[in-house]
Amino acid sequence: MGRKEIDGVHQARTLASLGTIAEAFEIPSPVETIAPYGRGLINDTFCVEAGGTRYVLQRINGAVFPDPLRIMSNIQALDRQARQHADLGFRVPALIATRAGDAGLRAPDDSVWRLMTLIEDAGSLPRIEDPEQAREVGRLLGRFHTLLQSLPAEALGITLPGFHDTPAYLAGFLSALARVEGARNDPQIETCVRFALLRQGLARRLADARDRGEIPVRVTHGDPKLDNILFDRGSGRAIALIDLDTLQPGLVLHDIGDCLRSCCNCSGESADGHTRVRFDLAVAEPILHAYAEQTRDWLNPQEIALIPEAIRLMPFELGLRFLTDHLEGDRYFKVAQPGENLRKAGIQFALVTDIEGKVDDIESMVSRCFQAP
After folding, report:
1. Residue extent(s) of CATH 3.30.200.20 domains in the chain
2. Do you know which Gene3D superfamilies this protein is assigned to (predicted)?
3. For residue 93, is pLDDT > 60?
């Protein structure tokens, strides 16, 4: 039997086992089709069709998420909250229970699976093309935070320990730097290392404000980048935030900063040269203005005052993570070629540099957006 035939047999067996897993959930039987779905790098994701309805089947990566069933519990809490506040118009992919009544399925190989409804006729955008799309992003994130601000943070479990713990990321970077002999002999690495070392104080700004009780811990999305925002294909409205694995207690400032980092670097993480990287204020302002319309009544003054710091912090944090992963041999972020994480670190640090040059404009923008209507 040739390699191609062997691969075909393996794929057929895999699809058959996936069908068995899917049919363990409360959906019509038999499963009609099942195929790989999406571009996610963490979980294995498949689109399942049964009874004329499409679903998303996922194997949760236990190497990343130590307690996969806690993720489902958090999503259920979000779903209950969304049903109680249906007026906010926020859509949540619904978890489908197993035939045994559980939120997820633990397979014989100890992998954990979940099945969710697929939000039809919706998709993400590769980039923000106009101010109305930007406003939709801000409205959606604002509605999401408003939906959850009345939910006690302690009602949700921690699904990804250490996520957005910038001081811990800094400590990990310093440790990796000390272990990798001769790393700084590479000029590109040295440039990034010097950049990070000069900004070590930035890592503790939000954590210190939290520890002093100036900003509260709330329920957050954790990863509200543009890829995770679904737009209705008919109306163009932003209707859902997906990839809810990192839904957990945190700081809304991390969400705000990360959303703006993702949406306002129009060159993206694949920029050819760092000179093209810039923080686009023309995209940032409509996002933040629409966000403020939803949240200014309940965000506390210190949270608003620290938004410029969050905008600067989040690309610094991501750049630090890319740089650390490069030093450690690309163990966390998947790479297509050697040096990719180092290049991505440089892009995020270039974004920080551009943000630092626009700090006065950013502070003025925040003031305009959050002033009373």
Report:
1. 3-118
2. 3.90.1200.10
3. yes
* Number of Cβ atoms within 10 Å of the Cβ of 373: 5
CATH (residue range 3-118): 3.30.200.20
Give the whole-angstrom CA distance, residue 153 versus residue 149. Answer: 9
Q: How far apart are CA 162 and CA 322, in angstroms?
A: 16
The CA-to-CA distance between both ends of the chain, in Å, stands at: 72
Residues forming a β-bridge with 44: 59
Q: What local confidence, expressed as pLDDT, does residue 116 receive?
A: 96
At position 358, the amino acid (one-letter code) is K
Check if the beta carbon of residue 131 is closer than 8 Å to that of residue 139: no
At 10 the pLDDT is: 39
Q: Order of strands across the sheet with 122-123?
A: 122-123, 229-232, 238-241
Domain with CATH 3.90.1200.10 in the chain: 131-370
Question: 362 and 355 in contact (C-beta within 8 Å)?
Answer: yes
Q: Burial of 69 by CB count in 10 Å (0-12 exposed, 13-18 middle, 19+ buried)?
A: middle
Does position 262 have pLDDT exceeding 50, yes or no?
yes
Q: What is the pTM of this model?
A: 0.91
What gap in Å lies between CA 265 and CA 280, rounded to an integer? 6
Residue 38: pLDDT band by 50, 70, 90 thresholds? confident
**Which DSSP helix (H) or strand (E) runs through 33?**
strand 33-36
Which fold would CATH assign to domain 131-370? Answer: Aminoglycoside 3'-phosphotransferase; Chain: A, domain 2 (3.90.1200)
Is residue 352 a contact partner of residue 275, using CB atoms and an 8 Å limit? no
Cα separation of 13 and 105, whole Å?
Answer: 19
How many other C-beta atoms can be found within 10 angstroms of the C-beta atom of residue 180?
Answer: 14
